[in-house]
């Protein structure tokens, strides 16, 4: 459990030799005394096993308790709140580790995708067992193609289980709209530093601006232009909070030729100047947290955590 700084011996649970890594939160410096948001270049699952606390993902604070599962995607801003007794099983894997065939139907590349689940029920309970077993096998096996395949397979099973948990939340829009928006998101991830024009993304996809806006509204409730500006503003927040780059350099990286233009854009989107946001992000975590799952009193069975 998170108690004092001398227990934190690892900087982060980076993926190991097979592209998968596991450890406990209390064995890392994620819960430093004065945590600063950081960005990881790989995926991270965090299954809370003890205590209550707060985890901030892309500047939104989430309450966690035993049974809470978080999925942090590559590039997202992350920090754990320091609260006595909080601990979690952590699983990391390299961004391109799994093929589409191994995790068919799982939104692995959906970088803004689902973030938090409160596990309960038979299928959800299975995630707890499989995460624990993955931790055991990561510790037991340190080389070999067969062992690497086993770890990759176990990770795929965990992700497939997670996909089943939120399957009921999908299918509310037409497949055509979902495909259009998925392509839009994919292009926006790589294209937002070069263009903030909806017309450019519509042209790449091969649809009209109206079609793209309709798909965006159906999937997010936001227009296509708002989705673009949201993504640029998010990247600005991440760079301000997680790097020491100057405000002018961040603006240049995001396609703003003049710092004043970037400052106006950021103030419009965030409600404060870039400098004020950077100072706020370096301060204490927000006391307001999103608890976007019902309190169902889930617990992680003690016998399943013996290997953690």
Automatic annotation (TrEMBL):
Keyword Translocase: no
Pfam families on file: AraC_binding, HTH_18
Occurrences of domain HTH araC/xylS-type (ranges): 178-280
Keywords, in A-Z order: Cytoplasm, DNA-binding, Transcription, Transcription regulation
UniProt keyword Cytoplasm present: yes
Any one GO molecular-function label of the UniProt entry: sequence-specific DNA binding
Family matches, as PROSITE patterns: HTH_ARAC_FAMILY_2
Matching SUPFAM superfamilies: Homeodomain-like (SSF46689), Regulatory protein AraC (SSF51215)
Chain segments carrying region Disordered: 281-308
Family matches, as InterPro entries: AraC-bd, AraC_XylS_family_regulators, Homeodomain-like_sf, HTH-like, HTH_AraC
Protein name: AraC family transcriptional regulator
Organism: Pseudosporangium ferrugineum
